[in-house]
Amino acid sequence: MMSLLDDGGPIFAQIAAELANQIADGTVGEGERVASSNEISAFYRVNPATAARSLTVLAEQGLVEKRRGVGMFVAEGARERLVRERRRGFADRYLRPLVVEAARLGIGLDELLGLVREELTSVEVTAGVKA
């Protein structure tokens, strides 16, 4: 786990978002145990109640489930649900502002697509993945 917490928003929400990102990108797979509230508390150096609240948020979203006496585990279908929800918001959150700003700057479709291709190539090279 790599801590990406910042000063924006409640700490429990930031931790929950980071754990959800790990589920979405497959770092923590379905059926796998997630860190306990004590482990989260120690890692992020936060109050155990804050750590527990982050897990509660994930449980309320149906992303993790408690197995009595064993811990919290990624729920079946959690990754698929997360990816589906995030894809729905992708155009509104990222594409629309990109297209609006491109129009303001007089960037046409071909040029915009070229810029996107260049960025994808850059991401592939730095991340070592195929986009």
From TrEMBL:
* Protein keywords: DNA-binding, Transcription, Transcription regulation
Q: Which InterPro entries match?
A: Tscrpt_reg_HTH_GntR, WH-like_DNA-bd_sf, WH_DNA-bd_sf
One Pfam assignment: GntR
Q: Does the UniProt entry include the keyword Methyltransferase?
A: no
Give the organism the record lists: Yinghuangia aomiensis
Every HTH gntR-type domain range? 9-77
Entry keyword annotation includes DNA-binding:
yes
**Know the name of this protein?**
GntR family transcriptional regulator
